[in-house]
Structure prediction request, 463 residues.
Amino acid sequence: MSMTSVNSKIFKAYDIRGIYPEEINEGAAYQIGRAFALYLKKFESPMPEKIIVGQDARLSSQALSNSFKRGVTDEGVHVLDIGLVPVDVVYFASGSMKFPAAMVTASHNPKDWNGFKLIKSNVEFFNVLDLEIIIKNLPPKIPDVIKGEIKNENIKELYIKHVLSFIDIQNIRPMRIAIDTGNGAVGPILKSILQKLPIEYIAMNFNPDGDFPNHEPDPSKEKNNIDLINEINGGHYHFGCAFDGDGDRIIFIDEEGKPINPSIIGAIIAKSFLKPRHYGKVVYSLDVSKIVPDVVNAYGGEPIRERVGHTYIKKRLKEVDGILGIENSGHYYFKNNFYVDSGIICFLIMIYILSGQKKSLQAISGEFSKYFSISDINFSTKGGSASGGKVENAEALIKKIAQNFEGYQIDWLDGLTITTSDFWFTIRSSNTEPLLRLNIEAKDEIILERVKKDLITLIKKDI
Prediction:
């Protein structure tokens, strides 16, 4: 097997991801498995005897998982295969068993994508670019080692017990909820969790199907929530929610079928966590609404701004021993969940918060709707298929935009962020897709629309 067969473009900022089979395939998965085992032998002491492996529902996931496991065992390391599960089950397994782990997934990306999320023992993330270096230096022939073994393990009940520990089941009131798991990995285990709660629900797309026949597994795109919104509008529900392909992302829809900004959900949870204790650090991505630091400050917490991306948020949350992490894409991170994200835990916490109040989700979220925002106006960096058009040189364009805002507050934590007294915006390159993302927030709708129009005109002028 040629050591040059692994496409370098699949190694992203915080995971491995590419189009199957053109960019990532069984040969690449095998080499990634070998490289991960060698990386752990070099950097973990003592060397873990097992690597936990899980996978999502994508059509290519089983084949990639098999090849990855073969690469691991060929290097003499055992595999604990936990099968088709949401990614937070893999995180839980790693955190509770203290073994490194791998999840075969491309999260919310379209069905022809796939990849790997890799973690060291105790849910510790690392720079996957290190694996690319190891792969380039892999010997073509594996040394004579005793091959590792593959053992299947079912940790479903332990995981369910863990996530239910975040709420008091006795205080959950009966609700009616519409839930769309998008034919991803969440449906089966969420069904088992819901059986333990006084919840009536409509199960939409609960059966895992890697062809994603109903819509893409990305609930952050409104087009993928049309069926869910129609269901809510046609029935009587307390709220609705949608999960992405591997279950680390969740989007909420209120009882009138209106999507709720993920930043507002984060602010609601932050208030719930901080109000009884009046302390705690909350880490939030720089594209999150200003309502989050406003709420954290109001309830005695410490808001900490960080780059967009799950490894950055998780790492910072753990470093500062924070209680909550928030991303505007619908990721929520919890200290008692090994500092990592979980759509299912967020779902349970929101049920618990609603159970303790007599207000609807729309009424509660309305209390936090202080600002007006537009999230993720996308400009493609190849092919020109995104809503904003094609950007040939994203970095040069961002620097050019900054020149138009001299005298305002500028920072370069992740792309460009401009802050004024009336509005703020951030423009940055996506870590997971070939896109340039623009987020804008303002004091009122008139300012928001004006800034949006001006920025799109400014960007398209240089496209």
Residues 26-43 form the longest helix (18 residues). The mean pLDDT is 93.
